[in-house]
């Protein structure tokens, strides 16, 4: 049996990962440590509620005694760190929490793993253990019109979010280079799919368009992101966890670059057709003040993970976006729950003063 300690798995990607792994394997156990911030949602894990292979622990990755206890009690083979503050706009408004969770939390996990897995007398690591850091292509900064991020691209982050993720990555590498800790880092492009919080581009546009609310497009909307269906990311993380060479970074992306305005128009087109609602149209689009430090283009070269581990994406954008829209339409109570209360205040603060351009 393989035991995983996975952090942040009440959030978007982590919850998809838990469900993906429980479906794919029988002989596993997943300990899921999550602080249940605004982004953590137990509703995402409903399908795993009665599955005793999934053990949920409500707690913080910065809590050293708790993390040490979990490592001692469950003795996981693999630790996968999804937990993070993940939204660029929030990081611009309040960077410190990003440092606490993304940097200090990661270093705490590394330190606890080292204490649990390293024998200083024998100068050896427990066999078969690995720490996997789930990172992002945003650590590489922005691309011009040409070229792609490879694992050798220098880190050049611009937002407080991407800076905190890059910093965490450097600590992971330092634990490998300094102590010989078995680690991997994955750097994926933008994900989309079910359970994504309604602050990120695609779910925000679905929610607003469905309710005939304005669709805020930052600047000219010609920024490019490389979109990957979330299950293809989960598949890649699983492959790296089991087959990745220690110390290696793996970029993950499916060569699916789209401008933001294309994404917004696709959501409008699909939604209006699915709902037969002519009021969902491009007249809802508002070009608003740009995000400061906005990266113009991300694009991943996934050549290494394809060649080394045989990974490839299975869901095309055309299929994935329809599945995603259908999921949000089919689960209105999920969106209702996450957009009540604190979300209203978030939306007013984030978009209320954003001038139309
Ligand atoms: P998310 O914001 O949806 O979920 C984050 C989860 O972490 C939440 O469940 C939250 O409660 C938990 N969390 C936050 N702080 C915590 C703490 N201190 N201790 C324990 N749990 C804590 O994020 P996501 O989109 O699922 O992203 C998961 C990971 O993948 C992040 O590390 C992110 O940087 C990375 N990533 C995301 C994308 C993307 O497009 N969403 C792309 C590439 C990489
Ligand atoms: P986002 O989903 O926040 O992901 P990231 O910033 O990590 O790439 O944003 C994706 C793109 O969409 C990014 O270029 C910013 C843009 N965007 C808007 O134009 N309007 C919005 O309301 C949001 C949330 C994002």
Topology, please?
Blueprint: E1 2-7, H1 12-24, E2 28-34, E3 54-58, H2 64-74, E4 78-81, H3 88-93, H4 96-117, E5 118-119, E6 124-125, E7 130-136, H5 160-179, E8 183-188, E9 191-192, H6 201-210, E10 215-218, E11 224-226, E12 228-229, H7 230-243, E13 248-252, E14 257-259, H8 260-275, E15 285-288, H9 303-309, H10 317-330, H11 332-339, H12 342-351
Parallel strand pairs: 1-2, 1-4, 2-3, 4-7, 7-8, 8-13, 9-12, 10-15
Antiparallel strand pairs: 5-6, 11-14
Helix pairs in contact: 1-7, 2-4, 4-5, 6-8
The structure holds nicotinamide-adenine-dinucleotide and thymidine-5'-diphosphate.
Nicotinamide-adenine-dinucleotide (NAD) is lined by residues 7-8, 10-14, 33-37, 39-40, 60-62, 82-86, 101, 105, 134, 136, 165, 188, 190-191, 197.
Task: Describe this structure as you would to a colleague.
With 357 residues, the protein is of the alpha/beta class. It has a domain at 2-197 and 228-254 and 294-316: Rossmann fold (3-Layer(aba) Sandwich), CATH 3.40.50.720. The chain has helices at residues 12-24, 64-74, 88-93, 96-117, 160-179, 201-210, 230-243, 260-275, 303-309, 317-330, 332-339, 342-351, and strands spanning 2-7, 28-34, 54-58, 78-81, 118-119, 124-125, 130-136, 183-188, 191-192, 215-218, 224-226, 228-229, 248-252, 257-259, 285-288. Strands 3-2-1-4-7-8-13 form a seven-stranded parallel sheet, sandwiched between helices. Strand 7, helix 5 and strand 8 form a beta-alpha-beta unit. The longest helix has 22 residues, at 96-117. The mean pLDDT is 97. Nicotinamide-adenine-dinucleotide is lined by residues 7-8, 10-14, 33-37, 39-40, 60-62, 82-86, 101, 105, 134, 136, 165, 188, 190-191, 197.
């Amino acid at each position: 049996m393989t035991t995983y300690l996975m952090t942040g798995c009440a959030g978007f990607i982590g919850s998809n990962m838990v469900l993906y792994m429980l479906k794919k394997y029988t002989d596993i156990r997943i300990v899921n440590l999550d602080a249940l911030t605004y982004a953590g949602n137990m509703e995402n894990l409903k399908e795993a509620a009665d599955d005793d292979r999934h053990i949920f622990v409500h707690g913080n990755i910065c809590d050293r005694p708790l993390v040490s206890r979990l490592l001692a009690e469950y003795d996981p083979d693999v630790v996968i760190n999804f937990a993070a503050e993940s939204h660029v706009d929030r990081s611009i408004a309040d960077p410190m929490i990003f440092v606490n969770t993304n940097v200090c939390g990661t270093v705490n996990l590394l330190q606890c793993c080292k204490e649990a897995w390293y024998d200083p007398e024998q100068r050896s690591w427990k066999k078969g253990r690995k720490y996997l850091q789930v990172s992002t292509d945003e650590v590489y900064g922005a691309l011009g019109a040409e070229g792609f991020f490879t694992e050798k691209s220098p880190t050049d982050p611009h937002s407080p979010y991407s800076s905190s993720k890059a910093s965490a990555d450097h600590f992971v590498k330092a634990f490998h280079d300094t102590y010989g800790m078995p680690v991997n880092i994955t750097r994926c492009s933008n994900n989309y799919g079910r359970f994504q919080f309604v602050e990120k581009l695609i779910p925000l546009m679905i929610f607003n368009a469905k309710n005939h609310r304005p669709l805020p497009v930052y600047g000219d909307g010609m920024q490019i992101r490389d979109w990957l269906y979330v299950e293809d990311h989960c598949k890649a993380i699983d492959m790296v966890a089991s087959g990745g060479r220690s110390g290696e970074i793996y970029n993950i992306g499916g060569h699916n670059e789209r401008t933001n305005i294309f994404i917004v128009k696709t959501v409008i087109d699909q939604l209006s057709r699915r709902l037969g609602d002519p009021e969902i149209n491009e007249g809802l689009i508002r070009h608003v003040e740009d995000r400061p430090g906005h990266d113009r283009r991300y694009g991943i070269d996934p050549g290494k993970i394809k060649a080394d581990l045989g990974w490839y994406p299975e869901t095309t954008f055309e299929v994935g976006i329809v599945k995603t829209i259908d999921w949000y339409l089919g689960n209105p109570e999920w969106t209702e729950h996450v957009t009540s209360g604190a979300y209203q205040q978030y939306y007013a603060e984030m978009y209320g003063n954003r001038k139309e351009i």
